[in-house]
Amino acid sequence: RTAIVLFTRDLRVHDHPALATSCAAFDRVVPLYVLDPALAGLSPNRTRFLHQSLAALRDALRGRGGDLVVRHGDPVAETIRLAAEVHATGVALSADVSRYARRREQRLRDECARHRLHLRTFPGLTVVEPGALKPGGGDHYRVFSPYHRAWARQAWRDELAPPCRVTLPTGVVAGRLPALPPGESPDAVPGGEDQARRRLTAWLPAQPRYADRHDDMAGDETSRLSPYLRFGCLSPLSVANRVDDRASPFVRQLCWRDFYYQVTDAFPGISTDAYRRGATENWRYDEDALAAWAQGRTGVPVVDAGMRQLRHQGWMHNRARLITAGHLTKSLGLDWRAGVRVFSHWLLDGDVANNSGNWQWVAGTGNDTKPYRGFNPVRQAERYDPDGAYVRRWVPELAAIAGPAVHQPWRLPTPPDGYPPPLEPPGPTPTWLR
Ligand code: FAD
Known about the structure:
Its cofactor is FAD. Pfam families: DNA_photolyase, FAD_binding_7. Residues 407-434 are annotated as: Disordered. The protein is an alpha/beta fold. The chain contains 17 helices and 5 strands. The protein has 3 domains: 2-125, HUPs (Rossmann fold, 3-Layer(aba) Sandwich), CATH 3.40.50.620; 126-157 and 193-266, Serine Threonine Protein Phosphatase 5, Tetratricopeptide repeat (Alpha Horseshoe); 287-433, DNA Cyclobutane Dipyrimidine Photolyase, subunit A, domain 3 (Orthogonal Bundle), CATH 1.10.579. It is 42% helix and 6% strand. The chain has a 5-stranded parallel beta sheet, sandwiched between helices. Helix 3 runs parallel beside helix 4, helix 5 (144-153) crosses helix 10 (249-266) and helix 10 packs across helix 15. The N and C termini lie far apart (71 Å). It binds flavin-adenine dinucleotide.
């Protein structure tokens, strides 16, 4: 008996429930990845990372006697076609929550039924499956803290070893991986399960310091595992299991990730529609201000530092994401959806649930229980980059300004050359400039 394992954003062999279960239950397994033209070109950074991760997955599968079969086209049509070629009776897939992924899964389910193929979906993209925890009287958790309490108490599934052997049917043509496409960020980390596992091992000794250091933008001591979690090069469960204390601040961040997955599962319009009923949405439209923000030329140094880090590395520190997103929505009054698009273009870890969920939280249209909280980027900068080192690293025009004065160049007797004055939104002087 033969099964196809359709890989999507679960590009690993360790703790992969769909792969492990199929290898145990079937004589032959065909690992498949379909390069979907509908997803191509969305983000050059992520496309490059994806291709690196596919190459690593192929190597790992070959090392186990198998291979990664690569096809181009519609994933549903290609899976059905391959199933006919190899006489498969089963198809396995990791369940996902975005609207696109769910439509794909539904189409696959319909086509499998038509062709008498048995489709099974598996967990693996989150620690706790979306929908597994429900508050009394609701279909999902709207507020993080009670979700976190339930999540930490929940029994987690067992972590799975990689299959020892992957046995392909004879005569399958694996297909070539296209040449590695260029990304846009010169300092983006490379994709792949081996890279991910190395990064995790190297970072774990710093984990006990996470509580004290994670907000220090210049110190840069967070795990930077997010791109690997985004593409499933690491299982979030196996990351969480490496830390003894489930209530620790680091494991709590993995719970935020699960939280937004279960929100997206219940509210698939998260990237376009305000989540909170009755949210006020009177955004301004100002293409010049949006472009200045996206390019890191707003004239507010900490905001520009964050946006330049994003463009240079395809990644941004979480505190800088909060500051840049708060500046776009709460200081400049621009629509969070525009911010989602810019982040999604550059971020290696950009995904629907976490990107839109966090943007809506900042904009006050999402899960924040205090949606009208004020926002002042200079206060934030003074607190989380007290010496200004993060700004000097990313904004070379300001590199000569010592200490925290770098956060307010407009107060200097001679403003620095080549750096713009702060963008002024219409209306009264914003509090952050007073
Ligand atoms: P660590 O601090 O080491 O945390 C470990 C892991 O926990 C991360 O890798 C990530 O998977 C998860 N995590 C941490 N913080 C959050 C959070 N607030 N929400 C959800 N998961 C979290 N994260 C993404 O993975 N993809 C996105 O598209 C994304 N967009 C964001 C947009 C905005 C406006 C904001 C404010 C945050 C966004 N985040 C997103 C969340 C967070 O900023 C990143 O996950 C984090 O900075 C990644 O760095 P790290 O791996 O070093 O995180």
